[in-house]
Amino acid sequence: MIEVISESRCTACGKCAQVCPMNVYDLDAQSKPVIARKADCQTCYLCEAYCHADALYVASEAFESPALSESELEAAGLLGAYRSQIGWGKGDSPIRKLQEYKELAAAGGAPF
Amino acid sequence: MSSKTESGLQLDADVLVVGGGPAAAWAAIAAQERGAKVVVADKGYLGTSGAYAASTSGHKVLPPVAVLRDPIKFERYALGGFLAQHRWWDRLLDITYERAPRVWEWGGYDIPVYDRKGSYRGLQGSEVMRILRSVLLKKGVRILDQSPALELLADSQGAIAGARGLDRQKNLPWTVHAGATVLASGGVAWLSKALGCNTNTGDLHLAAVEAGAELSGMEFSAHYSPAPKHSCTTKSAFYRYASYLGADFKPLEGLSRDGHRSTSAIARELLKGPVFCRLDKGTEKPETRRMLRILQPNFFAAFDRAHIDPFEQPFEITLLLEGTVRGTGGIRIADDECATTIPGLYAAGDAATRELNCGGFTGGAGPNMTWAIGSANIAGRAAADFARSLGPSAHLRDAKALGGAGLESRRPQESPWDAQAVVQAVQEEVFPYDKNIFRTEATLLASLAKLEELWRIVQGTPDQSTPQKAVRAREAAALVATARWSYFAGLERKETRGMHKRLDHPHLDPNQRHYLAVGGLDRLWTRPVAVPEPVLSDPNKLSLEAA
Question: Is the pTM of this model over 0.90?
Fold first, then answer.
């Protein structure tokens, strides 16, 4: 479930509240998101994918909350990881992922 | 009560599409291209809503060549209990072949070369939905995000005239008066959190039945997928590389065959104790591991974030209910145009029964998306034509709102019922493997008795103190209703066919090769509907046998 909103990274653009399919966020008076209905989070990682500031972290634990710290997540490269993995990060593109996939297949990587 | 006197957002459209996944997007595009003014209303955000945006799925894009298409049509025909129709498969494959590549074109991609299986590789569901949303906006389609539809409207003849709902962020009621309405609102997975499935609570199944429509195939609603136990990532394709291990990490046999897992065998083991997996069959090369990561980043997110290397370390699994999202039941399609039995009401994607191409077996990894694209294009176009046939003043019809349970109270003197408790009580009937996967007359009757009591409760006063609570109350009523239809149909189908397993009727009964229409609110009913096609033989198998 959504666990962390990085205070220092968040630009208060409101995108996470706009795109969350489960309506987990509310925006406060400064347009900053707050996790208002955490139990409704369906752990789909899509708010992370849409966050241009890489300010959100959705833990893979779907039914309970692990202890986490922002600095550990940052050190582990987990802030913005999903956006990058689907090709939406800075300097990434889905086309580059497709290209890499083809090259790996040509190198005999295909398991099937 | 005429909804036209209500406050809130009032819109007119030729076609209203309810939903926010690929079927909703495609239905809206098809209707708009047919000349209709289209409004889309979705509970979440068109782009992230529904199973596809979160989980990604392939679809079948094959030229009209029998040697390419026959294997797809026959692959799961017997598994689905011979309920799929090849005539529908042909139509769906034709449409997908023509329409699906347009997503690449719209997104500015080179159209890829088809692989031998005909399934596209590479575009994530989130990327496809981003492209479809931008196409809808460019075409001038109005999208109401965060705006769950709560009930349908009918004119004096009972034809559907639009819907009412609530913008849950602005706390603003909305009404769309439309000539035709397409329900593309997804299946129902009972809030199991199976990946991307929690927007899919069957709200529009309930609304459709309130309007007099029928469902079909609801007995085929017991689809479960494995997920790492800590997570809800029900991505199952890569379990073909899995070794299954028991509590002592000793190999468990019989949980998969030829790379296909057996859900019931896994469930039987899980009823005894923990089950672990390790993806160590044929995944030794680093290139292979990297390819799998590119294909399914969402699958690996569950592991990376929990610091598990699934290729090297055993991880504990569970089975999460995906219901009709990867099962096949839904709103019954009554003709070739994806119309329901009610004039002006159409259904597409997971909201509709997928028996027509999937039978009683899952259509995961291709057939489901082929149905979504095919049925949505058919329904969107037909809805536009229907709306046009009504003439230019269709949106001025007097319209009555039809919603009941979870919206209105039959016992207004009572204090509100607890939606969370109702949801949990439904889940206690539909989640347990020994109730839903392994069915008997006794288990079904016991669950139906509890669900009957819940249905009585949700006729009471819904808690509408916040928009979120109002929506959850309607969802809770829909979860009760869809569970009742699923188990009532399961009680009536006294055989084992497709994913419907009856321990007390363990064999397929050729005399029950029919669809089961199901409906009713307080009193449930079923009715057999003939499959209008004989059982067909796989021509390739025949030629092998002849040889």
Answer: yes
